[in-house]
Design a protein that fits this description.
Blueprint (H helix, E strand, L loop, with lengths): L1 H14 L6 E6 L5 H17 L3 E4 L5 H12 L7 E4 L2 H9 L12 H14 L9 E14 H7 L9 H13 L3 E3 L7 H14 L1 H9 L9 H14 L13 H9 L3 E7 L2 H7 L12 E4 L14 E10 L5 H10 L2 H9 L4 E2 L11 H12 L3 E3 L1 H4 L1 H16 L5 H16 L1
Parallel strand pairs: 1-2, 1-3, 5-6, 8-10
Antiparallel strand pairs: 3-8, 4-6, 4-7, 4-8, 4-9
Helix pairs in contact: 8-10, 8-17, 10-18, 11-12, 17-18
C-alpha cells in the first residue's frame, strides 16, 4: 500500500505545473567594466530574493543602440526595459505604440522618490507614464591642468568666448591639441552647437524655434551659433583624424593627456579613464571642470546648463515583473552604490547624498542652481530633427557647411516633422 501511495504522489508531482520563470531583458549602454559589475551584482541580489525572475543585461554601444532600437522595439526580440534620454524621441516611441504605460503598476513610493521632475520627464503628452527617471547629467568642459600650465593658459581667461578662442590658439602655438572630438559619432559635435544656442537664444528662443514660430531654427541666434562654432573650427582645434574618431577614441585621447580639453558629459570622468591606454586617465588633482564661455549679448542665463534626465522605458510587452525589478533597482539602496562610485548622479531622493566625487558634486550643484537645464537637443527635438542637428554639427566641426545652411536644415527638419 505504501508503494502504491508513493507512486500516486510522484505521479501527481509530475503532473503539477513547474513554476514558470519570468525573464526580464534590460537593454543598457553601460560600457565601463566596474559599472557593469555593480549592475551584475545588483541583478544577482534581486534574483536571489525573487527566484521566479531572471534578469538579463544585453548591451549595445551608444551609437548602435540608437541605430537599432527602433527596429528592436518592433520585433519579437524587443527588450522589456531599455535606456532612454527622454524628450522627443521618447514621445515618438509612445505615439508609435511600442511602449507600455506603467502607472497602473508603478507604486506611489517610486513616484515620490523620483520627484515631480522625474515623473514629468517620463510622462508622454497623452498623459500616461511610460518610464522611470534614473539620473541627471551635464555637459561640461573638462580640462587638463598640467597642459594648461605647460601652455601658460589661465583657466579664468576662458570665461568669455573671445578668451576661449585666444586660449585655443595659445595651445596650438605650444604644440598642444586644444580639444578632443569624436566626430564620427556626430553627437559629440552637437554639444558645441547646442551649448552655443543655449548661450545665444536661451530657453525662450529655443522653445519658440522648436514650436516653429517665426524664423524658427533659421533665426538670427541659431545662425550666430553656427558662426561662433565655425570661428572655433577654423582654428583647427581638434586632434588629427577627429572625423574618423568615435566618442571612445576621443575620450581616451583626452584621458591619455593628449588634448587640453574635452566638451563632454559628466560621465566622461569614468569613461576617459576606461578608454585611456593605462585605464587610469588623468589624476584627479590634474583634472578640472570649466563653465562653458559666456557670450556678450546672449539671451541665455549664465546659469543655464545642457545635459539630460535619463531613465528607463518599458516596451509594450513588458511584464509587471519588469516594472517591479526597475522599481527595486532604481531605489536608494542600489542607486547609492552608483553615486558613491561616481558613475552618475541619481535623481532618486537621498541616493546622491553620500556622493564624494568632487566633479559629480560640482555638476549636481550646477544643475540645482540652473535657470534652465536644457535636454540634449538630439533627444529633445525627436529622432528626425535630432539626427539633422547631429549631422550639421559634425559638418560645422569640419568647417564643411555654412552657418546659414546648418540653421536652415534644422528649421526644415522641424517643419517636415510638423507636417
Amino acid at each position: 500500500m505504501k508503494r502504491i501511495a508513493l507512486a500516486a504522489m510522484l505521479g501527481l508531482m509530475a503532473l503539477a505545473p513547474v513554476q514558470a520563470q519570468t525573464v526580464v531583458k534590460y537593454l543598457n549602454i553601460a560600457s565601463i567594466p566596474d559599472e557593469v559589475k555593480l549592475m551584475t551584482e545588483a541583478v544577482a541580489e534581486y534574483e536571489a530574493a525573487n527566484p521566479g525572475v531572471k534578469v538579463e543585461l544585453p548591451f549595445l554601444e551608444n551609437e548602435a543602440f540608437k541605430a537599432k532600437l527602433t527596429t528592436l522595439l518592433q520585433s519579437a526580440d524587443a527588450p522589456d526595459v531599455f535606456h532612454s534620454w527622454g524628450g522627443g524621441v521618447f514621445y515618438e516611441q509612445a505615439k508609435a505604440g511600442v511602449l507600455r504605460p506603467i502607472e497602473g503598476v508603478l507604486s506611489q513610493e517610486a513616484k515620490d522618490a523620483q520627484g515631480t521632475a522625474g515623473v514629468a520627464a517620463f510622462t508622454a503628452p497623452d498623459g500616461h507614464i511610460y518610464g522611470i527617471a534614473r539620473d541627471v547629467a551635464e555637459v561640461v568642459l573638462w580640462y587638463n591642468k598640467a597642459l594648461f600650465t605647460q601652455a601658460g593658459v589661465d583657466p579664468e581667461s576662458l570665461k568669455t568666448w573671445d578668451g576661449f578662442l585666444a586660449a585655443v590658439q595659445k595651445f596650438k602655438d605650444a604644440g598642444i591639441t586644444p580639444l578632443a572630438m569624436g566626430g564620427k559619432d556626430k553627437w559629440p559635435a552637437h554639444f558645441w552647437w547646442s551649448k552655443l544656442v543655449v548661450r545665444l537664444a536661451g530657453q525662450d528662443g529655443f522653445n519658440a524655434a522648436a514650436r516653429g514660430e517665426g524664423d524658427g531654427f533659421a533665426g538670427e541666434d541659431f545662425v550666430k551659433a553656427g558662426q561662433f562654432f565655425l570661428q572655433l573650427a577654423q582654428l583647427d582645434p581638434w586632434q588629427e583624424g577627429f572625423q574618423a574618431a568615435t566618442y571612445g577614441d576621443a575620450s581616451g585621447y583626452f584621458g591619455d593627456g593628449k588634448a587640453a580639453m574635452h566638451l563632454m558629459g559628466d560621465w566622461d570622468y569614468g569613461a576617459m579613464k576606461d578608454n585611456s591606454a593605462t585605464k587610469q586617465g588623468i589624476p584627479d588633482d590634474q583634472l578640472g571642470i570649466l563653465p562653458f564661455p559666456t557670450i556678450d549679448g546672449g539671451k541665455g542665463d549664465p546659469t543655464d546648463t545642457l545635459g539630460g534626465l535619463s531613465g528607463y522605458l518599458f516596451s509594450k510587452n513588458a511584464s509587471d515583473d519588469a516594472v517591479k525589478f526597475i522599481e527595486w533597482y532604481n531605489a536608494k539602496p542600489v542607486q547609492s552604490r552608483f553615486a558613491n562610485a561616481g558613475y552618475y548622479i541619481p535623481i532618486v531622493n537621498g541616493a546622491a547624498d553620500g556622493m564624494t566625487n568632487p566633479f559629480k558634486v560640482l555638476v549636481a550643484q550646477d544643475i540645482n542652481k540652473a535657470h534652465w537645464h536644457a535636454l540634449f537637443f538630439d533627444q529633445a527635438l525627436g529622432p528626425a530633427v535630432g539626427g539633422v542637428v547631429n549631422d550639421v554639427s559634425a559638418d560645422l566641426a569640419a568647417n564643411a557647411i555654412s552657418a546659414e545652411d546648418a540653421a536652415l536644415q534644422v528649421k526644415e527638419a522641424v517643419d517636415d516633422a510638423a507636417n
